[in-house]
Structures are given as C-alpha cells and as structure tokens.
Amino acid sequence: MKSFNDEEGSRPCDIGHCRPWSAAFLAHHPLRERAWDFLFQEEAEAILDLAARIQRRKPDAIVGASIIIEVLLRHGWSPSAATTVILLDWVPNPWGFGGVDQCYDVIAANAVDLIAGQLQRNEKGSPKYVNMLLSAGQWVAGKPGAMTARL
C-alpha cells in the first residue's frame, strides 16, 4: 500500500494543534514502523502540492483539521464522491462535512468552573498536583452527499 509520504521529497512534520491526534495515531497504529507513511501534515511549502497529490492518489478518506480542508478548498481542490472527509475539530461548515465536535463551549464552561473553584478555595500559585478534566466530543454526521462518513 502506497501512502502520501512515499513520494520523493515529502517529509512529515506537524502543525501545533494536530500534534495530539498525530501522536495518538502513531502510538496506536497496528503497523507502527509504517505509521508515519500514512500521515500527511501541513507544511507551508507542501500544502500547495497536497491537492494535486490527493487528486493523483484518490484516497478513500481524508481525516484532518478543518483548517487543512479549508486550505485545500481555497487552492482548488474539490472532493470527489469517492473521498470521505472527516473533520477532527468539527464546526458548522458550508460543505456539510461531518466529524467530531470538540464541544468548545463545554470545555470553556469547565475551565471557568475550575478557576472559580480555585478562587473560592483561595488557592494561589501552581498546584502541586494539576487537576485535569476530560470532556468527550460528539460525533456530527455530515449532510447527505457531502462526502463524509456517516457513523
């Protein structure tokens, strides 16, 4: 199986907000020695080439951050009916793509709640043990015909 990074001159890198997703993919992929080959992350000079590479390779699916899809669309890429697009940071979008809604409003409310609790307990400085709160995202199905997965 060939991947995007099999082409000469391609090299993987990562954009800041996608690092956790990339790390999880690399850590849990069944073929760890080949996992990098299946990732394509944004580089300033490589994004212009990505749309053409997708048209040549015709992948079954593109899973990525909405900013990457927006850049692709701005540079003339149009998804085919055979390509599934899944957004890892779903927000309402004009293309009807589905994906994972990170529920940023819930994250913000939880952050305010944590800070309010610290203020009420008169806690100052960095805590010895950091409190963390995990909020689950929600799957949002895409519109019919939007080339997105329907789980």
Write down how many β-strands occur, each being a DSSP E stretch of 2 or more residues. Answer: 4
Helical/strand content category? alpha/beta
CA radius of gyration is 19 Å
Distance between the termini: 25 Å
Counting H and I runs of at least 4 residues, what is the number of helices?
Answer: 4
Helix content estimate: 25-40%
Low-confidence stretches: 1-16
Overall form: elongated
The arrangement of helices and strands along the chain is HHEHEEHE
Protein model, in words:
The protein is α/β, with parallel strands linked by helices and 151 residues long. The protein has a domain at 4-102. It is 31% helix and 10% strand. The protein contains 4 helices and 4 strands, in the order H-H-E-H-E-E-H-E. The chain has helices at residues 19-28, 47-57, 66-74, 104-120; strands at residues 61-64, 84-87, 98-101, 138-140. It has a 4-stranded mixed sheet, covered by helices on one side. Strand 1 (61-64), helix 3 (66-74) and strand 2 form a beta-alpha-beta unit. Helix 2 packs across helix 3 (66-74). The longest helix has 17 residues, at 104-120. The radius of gyration is 19 Å and the shape is elongated. The two termini are 25 Å apart. The relative contact order is 0.13.
